[in-house]
Design a protein that fits this description.
Blueprint: E1 3-7, H1 12-23, E2 27-31, H2 37-40, E3 45-47, H3 57-64, E4 70-75, H4 90-111, E5 115-124, H5 140-160, E6 166-171, H6 188-201, E7 209-212
Parallel strand pairs: 1-2, 1-4, 2-3, 4-5, 5-6, 6-7
Bound molecules: NADP nicotinamide-adenine-dinucleotide phosphate.
């Protein structure tokens, strides 16, 4: 059995993904900047001290996993800075772009040689990256970064298909985590149950879709 790699596993949705995968008996590697007590209490192998926007993150992870076959790679780490049209901070836009869009692409490229045939790649995006679904405006940097992630996800679906790797772009729902200040329609446990169902049903026939954790397809 290969490993499942989850980024941003210290807390929130990423922590819950790691916990639920461990409960299934999956070998999980939790990638984080700093360990949390909840993660330390889990059965996951923890790789801490990894800032995903650092230039060395790709080579660092490639070295850590050089003896592993990866069956599942979940890019979950993300950041949201609120903004408005009259208050757009270019540095905050860049920071969101670096972590939400560029890091998953760079790390996928760095880890591609370790992806097993039949492996799955999941990008935790947001429906806020959808243009068709944008009915309320605002959140410039976050929406732009998630739209860029979605674009990368579709190209990755095309490029990884010949290697037998399927890609899904996921919206976790509005989830009660630090990112949302504890507000949202779903707890992390319920959100992640749906996310894992979507990953379970992913195949090369369905690669490249943008789906809600509840299974409905989302507009780009
Ligand atoms: N919550 C929602 O309603 C919602 C809705 C749509 C999409 N999403 C997406 O779901 C994903 C998880 O969100 P969440 O709600 O669980 O957020 P969260 O509770 O704020 O957790 C964010 C995670 O990302 C990690 N992270 C942040 N910057 C990092 C960096 N530079 N390097 C490595 N890790 C970093 C954090 O690690 P530290 O502990 O080290 O800070 C933390 O583990 C994100 O991609 C988010 O955009 C969430």
């Amino acid at each position: 059995m290969g490993i499942a790699v989850v980024t941003g596993a210290s807390r929130g949705i990423g922590l819950e993904i790691a916990l639920q995968l461990c409960r299934r008996g999956q070998r999980v590697v939790a990638v984080c900047r700093s360990r949390s007590p909840a993660l330390e209490a889990s059965a996951a192998r923890i790789e801490s001290g990894i800032d995903l926007i650092a230039a060395q993150a790709g080579p660092q992870l490639a070295a850590l996993f050089k003896h592993d076959d990866i069956d599942l790679l979940i890019h979950n780490a993300g950041v949201l800075h609120e903004d408005r049209v009259d208050q757009v901070d270019p540095n905050a836009v860049r920071a969101q772009f670096e972590l939400n869009a560029l890091a998953p692409l760079r790390l996928t490229a760095a880890l591609a040689p370790r992806l097993a045939r039949g492996a799955k790649l999941a990008l935790i995006s947001s429906r806020m990256g959808s243009m068709g679904d944008n009915t309320s405006g605002g959140y410039y940097g976050y929406r732009m970064s998630k739209a860029a992630l979605n674009a990368a996800g579709v190209s990755l679906a095309h490029d990884l298909r010949p290697r037998g790797v399927a890609v899904v772009i996921l919206h976790p729902g509005a989830v009660r985590t630090d990112m949302t200040g504890g507000h949202g329609l779903l707890g992390a446990e319920e959100s992640v149950r749906g996310l894992l169902e979507r990953i379970d049903e992913l195949s090369l026939e369905t690669t490249g879709r943008f789906v809600h954790q509840n299974g409905s397809e989302l507009p780009w």
